Amino acid sequence: MRVLALLLGSMFLAAAEPLPVVPQVDLARYMGTWHEVARLPNRFQRGCGCTSATYTLREDGRVSVLNQCRTPGKNKAVRGWAKVVDRSTNAKLKVTFFWPFFGDYWVLALDPDYRWVLVGTPNRKYLWVLSRTPRLEEATLRGLLERAQTLGFDTSRILRTEPCDPPLSPR
């Protein structure tokens, strides 16, 4: 019982601390398609599988966003855009799919070769593991989920996203 209390206490403590982001994101390298490998459940992705996000840098410095997924019976797509809110790192963005409402998009861990990324929100309600390929090595995924847990995310609720063949192509 004492161990459980310590574990829960440390989770709440981590959740109360500020959420650190990566030191730097090269936006040009970040652009392109990312496949969702895992996520915390959320209402706007209910029933989604085969999920991807495609980012395109715009001339005005903003980022176009195309999120796609398969649900039973159809493919879904939603377009939005993001703006960088921390130019010193490019790791904190605000994204909107329904202007004027924005959500946080913070880069919490990023592979040096931009093969995978851990993205979340400072309130620790939303979390995604994304990869340039539909599948990610199990050891890498476990490491990212352990990182998320140390940051205060409830990884016991993680949903793994089934990859699809062929992946959805950007429309």
Shape annotation? globular
Q: Residue-averaged pLDDT, rounded?
A: 90
Q: With helices defined by DSSP (H or I, 4 residues minimum), what is the helix count? A: 3
Architecture, according to CATH?
Beta Barrel
Series of secondary-structure elements, N-terminal to C-terminal: HHEEEEEEEEHE
> What's the end-to-end separation, in Å?
52 Å
**Largest sheet, spatial ordering of strands:** 1-2-3-4-5-6-7-8
Notes on the structure:
With 171 residues, the protein is of the alpha+beta class. The protein has a single domain, classed as Calycin beta-barrel core domain (Lipocalin). The protein is 19% helix and 39% strand. It contains three helices and nine strands; from the N terminus they run ααββββββββαβ. It has helices spanning 2-16, 27-30, 138-150; strands spanning 32-39, 49-57, 63-71, 74-84, 92-98, 101-110, 116-120, 127-131, 159-160. It has an eight-stranded antiparallel barrel with strand order 1-2-3-4-5-6-7-8. β2 and β3 (63-71) form a beta hairpin. The radius of gyration is 16 Å and the shape is globular. The N and C termini lie far apart (52 Å).
Summarize the structure.
The protein has helices at 2-16, 27-30, 138-150; strands at residues 32-39, 49-57, 63-71, 74-84, 92-98, 101-110, 116-120, 127-131, 159-160. With 171 residues, it is an alpha+beta fold.
Keywords:
171 residues, alpha+beta, Lipocalin, 8-stranded antiparallel β-barrel, 9 strands, disordered N terminus
What order do the helices and strands come in, and which of them pair?
Layout: H1 2-16, H2 27-30, E1 32-39, E2 49-57, E3 63-71, E4 74-84, E5 92-98, E6 101-110, E7 116-120, E8 127-131, H3 138-150, E9 159-160
Antiparallel strand pairs: 1-2, 1-8, 1-9, 2-3, 3-4, 4-5, 5-6, 6-7, 7-8
